[in-house]
Automatic annotation (TrEMBL):
Keyword Hydrolase on entry: no
Domain of life: Bacteria
Site entry (Part of a proton relay during catalysis), positions: T50, Y113
InterPro entries linked to this entry: Aldolase_TIM, DapA, DapA-like, Schiff_base-form_aldolases_AS, Schiff_base-form_aldolases_CS
Subunit structure: Homotetramer; dimer of dimers.
Protein name (record): 4-hydroxy-tetrahydrodipicolinate synthase
Reactions accelerated catalytically: L-aspartate 4-semialdehyde + pyruvate = (2S,4S)-4-hydroxy-2,3,4,5-tetrahydrodipicolinate + H2O + H(+)
Native organism taxonomy: Bacteria, Pseudomonadati, Pseudomonadota, Betaproteobacteria, Candidatus Kinetoplastidibacterium
Amino acid sequence: MVFSTKKISGSIVALITPMTPEGNIDYITYKRLIDWHIEEGTDALVVVGTTGESPSVSMDENAELIKVAVEYSNGRIPIISGVGANSTSEAIHLTKFAKKVGADAGLSVVPYYNKPSQDGIYQHFKNIAENVDLPIILYNVPGRTSVDMSNETVIKLTEIPGIIGIKDATGDIARGALLIRDCPSDFKIFSGDDSTAAALMMLGCSGSISVTANILPKTLKMLCDASMQGDIKKARELNSMLAPINKALFIEANPIPVKWALSELGMISLGYRLPLIPLNEKYHNLVRNAMKLAGCIF
């Protein structure tokens, strides 16, 4: 079953990549997490994005993680595959692979480190879309890439067939509101910032691609539904409850805190790839207390 891109909306989990303490990918737990998110009502999964440690896995591992997610989910939930790279040819290669194995869409990050111009960014995504027939969601996260794709460039890219949306991880509500206003109505704008997601959804965006949803999928699903359906009272209540954990999960670089939190819940073993290392012990109580406030642990 291939999902229509119309069904890619709502509460989307930016899924972690579980690893053993030695740093090997734990595919058994990966599959268990996919089952759990489906059971909890998550609307779609992003695999091998920033939260999935895409900078630390090899190209072959990136491809295998996409393939396993697509095959194991078996049409039960849309799979959005992380296919970004700072090399256009590598991004095209990954996107072709995602298309081949049956991913529903690709999440493609703004090229990092080599700092392309706005026209370079435009040409990068244009080439991907013209070479691969897979729906592409752009991903703007200047705090990670050091390159900020302007709203003007996004609007220009909406004219290219196959580019269906953007994950806006700027955390800038005013800027997101302008994107919602100025992009075509069928172009999907997703919040990529948990702290401001409810506000952006109330303004009309298509959902949230969330880190916090890794540990609270059912709660994030309720927040997305309330925000997108205009239930302001419920959205405010949920957002207030989630505010401390949204902040705590970024006390160190994502996904360090969220993997620690999942290990506290007994969902995963604690494993990372260098240069990421476990959460500093001085932050353990801070994250643990935020989890208690959010109802994760008691």
